[in-house]
Design brief:
The protein is α+β, with helices and mostly antiparallel strands. It has 3 domains: 120 residues, 2-Layer Sandwich (Uridine Diphospho-n-acetylenolpyruvylglucosamine Reductase, domain 3); 97 residues, Alpha-Beta Plaits (2-Layer Sandwich); 70 residues, Ribosomal Protein S8, Chain: A, domain 1. Helix content is 30%, strand content 25%. The strands form 4 sheets. Strands 15-12-14-13-17-18-16-19 form an 8-stranded antiparallel sheet, with helices on both faces. A 5-stranded antiparallel sheet has the order 5-6-10-8-9. A 4-stranded mixed sheet has the order 1-2-4-3, covered by helices on one side. A hairpin with a 5-residue loop joins strand 8 and strand 9. The longest helix is centred in the C-terminal third of the chain and has 15 residues. The two termini are 18 Å apart. The structure holds flavin-adenine dinucleotide.
């Protein structure tokens, strides 16, 4: 069925639904879960394929033209239960909008917004986002208590609840939440919150080689202080013009007294080249740093350790120098990102050959669970309407 016919059907059956034509694609903007349910029932009945989107920043493998269901009109905080430390929101609220509301009340949903402030809660849950404070706080689904979700056949289901101990039996909440838009649409979510740390401090160290960089990181980690984030990278990515090739930043969070004490101790073991104190100042610095990182193509590979400090290959410096590459070591999630100013595909090919020595793997390799996924997908989405071409999963036919 072509898009013009689809538009006619939508206008005829659901005249109140807002529909836009964006670059030859249809985008619908439901206002509530009932409208989502009616739209999906219609699509299921007519076998119209759709993709759920939030801000639409991370859609992969979409066929063109396409029908998108955007949650951006559903961006309210439903309830902030201050004594329960929970918040219930609609799936289309952005992480920055929510963080600003929570900050006024001294609460934190600890998924950093610095990298992509416009990402929606639905999109972040669907991809189980972590972020730069993942080392301490984990990923967004670690805070999820309950979900409202519309299935590919249009039923509105509720899983979990508003208390911390809810899940008896299978954990459907996370199965649906983390399904990358392939098992339905996240309409509402309830999260547990933590109190906002009183103070944050960010300090920077420099290093001449990757070995020195990881050594300094290990020394800081050995103190078992309240680090929420640490990353190493090519020095110019931190805007440093000094001679050192590499630099790291570390973020401490906690009470003012604890952070000040920890900083004093650390000053005696590492050479601190830059220091930012004050929670808002640190967050503003990180937001600026990550928004200027840009969208350069990156080669990402990872380890099965949270921190990768003992696993980096010996000859990494040489490899980076010879290939004009820049590096980010994400201390919190065992991931290495390389970007290059020379030929990206050549660099990726070369790294692929080296991966065997690195004992690492590309992070975009698919998990070997395709058979289970296929069975589940066919059961829950019999007409295969919900994001069937998402390359994260094997295509079902
Ligand atoms: C702090 C932070 C940490 C991040 N960490 C990670 C990470 O660890 N791993 C990772 O893969 N990405 C990560 N990202 C990227 C993140 O996944 C995307 O920024 C986010 O998904 C984009 O949100 P969006 O609203 O633009 O989603 P979109 O680009 O619109 O959609 C992204 C995916 O989510 C699905 N989706 C969107 N809304 C819904 C909904 N309401 N119901 C069901 N499915 C929906 C879409 O179908 C698509 O598969 C991170 C981003 C940030 C800001």
């Amino acid at each position: 069925m072509n898009l013009d016919s689809i538009k006619i059907i939508i206008n005829e059956k659901l005249p109140a639904l807002k529909v836009d034509d964006i670059q030859g694609n249809i985008v619908v903007y439901p206002q509530d879960s009932e409208e989502i349910s009616s739209f999906i029932k219609l699509c299921n009945h007519k076998a119209i394929q759709i993709i759920p989107i939030g801000s639409g920043s991370q859609i992969i493998g979409a066929k063109q033209p396409q029908v998108y269901l955007s949650t951006r009109k559903m961006n309210r905080v439903i309830e902030l239960a201050k004594n329960d430390l929970t918040v219930s929101v609609e799936g289309g609220i952005s992480i920055k909008e929510l963080a600003d509301i929570l900050r006024q009340e001294n609460f934190l949903l600890p998924i950093s917004y610095h990298e992509k402030p416009s990402s929606t809660i639905g999109g972040l849950l669907a991809r189980d986002a972590g972020g730069i404070e993942q080392y301490a706080y984990g990923t967004i689904n670690d805070y999820l208590l309950g979900l409202e979700f519309v299935t590919p056949t249009g039923e509105l289901i509720k899983t979990g609840g508003k208390t911390v101990k809810n899940v008896t039996g299978y954990d459907f909440t996370r199965l649906f939440a983390k399904s990358w838009g392939t098992l339905g649409v996240i309409v509402r979510a309830t999260f547990k919150l933590i109190p906002m740390p009183e103070e944050k401090a960010l300090f920077i160290t420099e290093a001449a080689s990757v070995d020195d960089l990881t050594q300094a990181m290990k020394e800081v980690l050995s103190k078992r202080f309240a680090l929420v984030s640490f990353m190493g990278m090519s020095a110019k990515m931190l805007g440093l013009t000094e001679d050192s090739k590499y630099a790291s930043f570390f973020v401490l969070a906690g009470s003012k007294i604890a952070v000040e004490h920890q900083l004093q101790v650390l000053k005696s073991i590492v050479d601190i080249k830059g220091l930012i104190t004050g929670r808002d100042n640190v967050d503003a610095y990180l937001e600026k740093l990550f928004s200027s990182k840009g969208s350069v193509s990156k080669i990402r590979f990872g380890t099965d350790r949270r921190s990768l400090l003992d696993l980096l290959p010996r000859n990494l410096d040489e490899l980076l120098n010879n290939n004009s590459m820049e590096i980010i070591l994400d201390g919190g999630n065992g991931m290495v990102e390389l970007s290059t100013s020379s030929d990206f595909n050549e660099a990726k090919k070369m790294i692929t050959e080296k991966l065997q020595d690195f004992k690492m793997c590309f992070t975009d390799n698919r998990a070997p669970l395709d058979i289970l996924y296929n069975r589940m997908k066919k059961e829950l989405d019999p007409n295969l309407i919900m994001y069937p071409h998402n390359p994260r999963f094997m295509e079902v036919s």
